[in-house]
């Protein structure tokens, strides 16, 4: 763990970031994010993962931080500028309604701790169909979510999907499950785009 729960930033429209709950390499290692890759942080919130990914992919790579709240992305733009990060592009959009990216662009995508707000029965086809469209063949999708364990923080237990529930929503849309990683309070599922 890179920091305590008190380190997580909270934005006006989001809960605290889950970024400090595990070391970045625990997320980006299994995702096989590398130099020159194009990375998509879906529902990026304050952008902690997007900022870390921008360093990993380097100047020849690109990071898209997509969120539906412009005020959150303005803060992310400012932070990227302060840090001298020029390969991060904040994008306003609701991924449940489509992705404002071209076809076959993305090597890796992260959906971090947003699974509790999704209606997978209603929206899975649209979300994962769009992800399949923008991802390159062989691209990787990482699903980071809270474990179904009673905790004094995070979403209520009833809103925490299990790894099996996430896999059941993702795999019918052209993805295969490659990996399940236990991260302590969270878990990480990695899928490959077929």
Q: Total strand count, please?
A: 9
Q: What's the SSE pattern?
A: EEHEHEHEEHEHEE
Decide which structural class fits the backbone: alpha/beta
Low-confidence stretches: 1-15
Q: What is the radius of gyration computed over CA atoms, rounded to a whole number of angstroms?
A: 15 Å
Instruction: Write down the CATH topology.
Output: Rossmann fold
Structure description:
This protein is of the alpha/beta class and 194 residues long. It has a single domain (31-193), classed as Rossmann fold (3-Layer(aba) Sandwich), CATH 3.40.50. The protein has five helices and nine strands; from the N terminus they run ββαβαβαββαβαββ. The strands form two sheets. Strands 5-4-3-6-7-9-8 form a seven-stranded mixed sheet, sandwiched between helices. The radius of gyration is 15 Å and the shape is globular.
Write the layout of secondary structure elements.
Elements (H helix, E strand, L loop, with lengths): L9 E2 L2 E3 L7 H8 L6 E5 L5 H10 L4 E6 L2 H13 L5 E5 L13 E7 L7 H15 E12 L16 H8 L4 E8 L3 E8 L1
Parallel strand pairs: 3-4, 3-6, 4-5, 6-7
Antiparallel strand pairs: 1-2, 7-9, 8-9
């Amino acid at each position: 763990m890179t920091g305590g729960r008190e380190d997580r930033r909270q934005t006006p429209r989001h809960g605290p970031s889950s970024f400090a709950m595990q070391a970045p390499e625990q997320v980006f290692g299994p995702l096989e994010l590398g130099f020159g890759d194009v990375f998509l942080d879906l529902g990026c919130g304050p952008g902690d993962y997007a900022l870390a990914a921008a360093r990993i992919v380097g100047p020849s790579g690109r990071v898209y931080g997509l969120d539906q709240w412009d005020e959150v992305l303005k803060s992310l733009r400012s932070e990227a500028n302060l840090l001298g990060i020029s390969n991060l592009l904040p994008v306003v959009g609701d991924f449940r309604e489509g992705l404002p990216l071209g076809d076959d662009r993305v090597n890796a995508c992260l959906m971090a701790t947003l699974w509790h707000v999704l209606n997978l029965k209603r929206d899975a086809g649209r979300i994962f169909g769009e992800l399949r469209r923008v991802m390159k063949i062989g691209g990787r999708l990482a699903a980071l979510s809270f474990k179904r364990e009673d905790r004094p923080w995070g979403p209520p237990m009833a809103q925490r999907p299990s790894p099996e529930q996430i896999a059941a929503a993702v795999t019918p849309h052209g993805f295969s499950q490659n990996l399940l990683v236990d991260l302590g309070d969270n878990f990480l599922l990695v899928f490959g785009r077929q």
